[in-house]
């Protein structure tokens, strides 16, 4: 028997947040967790996919992420924030800093959307050149992708 409630709690998610991530009604998730409504194998898989951390998604699709960044003119991609620290949760986003030459800036604008679609999580991409002095700690904490 599937214990979705225990899996959700291990992932550190509320019912409301998991419902949002999985794209299902909170009342349905509650019914699945309590056993009031049977849950199909396909729905279990959908809910479990929503509980995957961004770092796991990045690890699985690293090559594709690097290809998208490179194709769009980005170089030297680095991860910062919760994924870089190793404390991301399924509700976390993915933060990436890259170098982009000025002549590639327009080509690069679609990168966050492409990465979000690929990974199924929100991705923020900032350029090193665009960082202000007060944000330089990002570079110190960033780890190579």
TrEMBL record:
<dbReference type="InterPro" id="IPR052038">
    <property type="entry name" value="Type-VII_TA_antitoxin"/>
</dbReference>
<dbReference type="Pfam" id="PF01909">
    <property type="entry name" value="NTP_transf_2"/>
</dbReference>
<keyword id="KW-0067">ATP-binding</keyword>
<dbReference type="InterPro" id="IPR001387">
    <property type="entry name" value="Cro/C1-type_HTH"/>
</dbReference>
<protein>
    <submittedName>
        <fullName>Helix-turn-helix domain-containing protein</fullName>
    </submittedName>
</protein>
<keyword id="KW-0548">Nucleotidyltransferase</keyword>
<feature type="domain" description="HTH cro/C1-type">
    <location>
        <begin position="4"/>
        <end position="58"/>
    </location>
</feature>
<dbReference type="Pfam" id="PF13560">
    <property type="entry name" value="HTH_31"/>
</dbReference>
<keyword id="KW-1277">Toxin-antitoxin system</keyword>
<dbReference type="InterPro" id="IPR043519">
    <property type="entry name" value="NT_sf"/>
</dbReference>
<keyword id="KW-0479">Metal-binding</keyword>
<keyword id="KW-0460">Magnesium</keyword>
<keyword id="KW-0808">Transferase</keyword>
<dbReference type="InterPro" id="IPR002934">
    <property type="entry name" value="Polymerase_NTP_transf_dom"/>
</dbReference>
<dbReference type="InterPro" id="IPR010982">
    <property type="entry name" value="Lambda_DNA-bd_dom_sf"/>
</dbReference>
<comment type="similarity">
    <text>Belongs to the MntA antitoxin family.</text>
</comment>
<keyword id="KW-0547">Nucleotide-binding</keyword>
